[in-house]
Amino acid sequence: MTDLSNLPFSVLDLAPVPEGSGVADSFRNTLELARRAEALGYKRFWLAEHHNMTGIASSATAVLIGHVAGGTKTIRVGSGGVMLPNHSPLVVAEQFGTLEALHPGRIDLGLGRAPGTDQLTMRALRRNFAAANEDFPRDVSELRAYFAPSRPGQLVRAVPGEGLGVPIWLLGSSLYSARLAAELGLPFGFASHFAPDYLLHALEVYRENFRPSEELQEPYALACLNVFAAETDGEARRLFTSLQQAFVNLRRGRPGKLPPPVETLEGFASDLEMAGVEHALRYSVVGSREVVGRGLEAFADLTRADELMLTSQIHDHAARLRSFEIVAGVRERASANVS
Question: How many domains does the chain have?
């Protein structure tokens, strides 16, 4: 079994907006979670770009990263990710160059290829997603160049940004970004917390085709999963129903704020809908300390990931904090057993 004590754990936060609360509450909760994660020894804290979703408040991702980085001291803070088709590479370089200048050595830039929203909102963002596949590799290369030292005669420069070498990650849920990350010699993260199908194949493609770069000599892969930890298995399963309801609502075309947990989902969704949700959330560890420990070890063994990123869409903020505390305790116990 994988030794969890030597495996970095990180946090993916979507700045969820639970029913009964607002965006300002979400931002306060996100900062409190980041501070708790820092104290518990998590390696990094990432925020994800989404648009036109009332239950997710991380749309202005760079702004929120600055808020979190300014309220913490040591934990790495970054994007998981910025959806590059929505942005000019120069603007992204300037934003993250500013963040790196303000918080040296603590900023990560994870890049995604999806729009992070629906087609109508994508048009409101003034982007042409039809050209994303063709433009994405070129945009990534342009972005990397902006972070490099300026060259003689260079007419367009990222200020701040140039020479800062902000770490770039490629993120994805298919084979496309795995291949590109391998080709460019960049670290790779897989979104298995909602798109499980290509996880193992993508990691295999990435590792087998990796080409060393100035940034990275060996492949480095991160895998994300949902973790709902509580004092009892039953309570963890109850907390998990918030995410299950949210997925059903999203697939019905009615996304909203994160619903409170329920004792049972019987009658809420059809068998077909629940089967789809169970498949999408296949990589979820739900239970008490012992169950979570075994689940994390099994996922680490399965993926051989260099780092695990955990996300928890839990309605009650105190319960969400406690879930991450329990996971940290699992890792501490693994370390104690090794020593």
Answer: 1
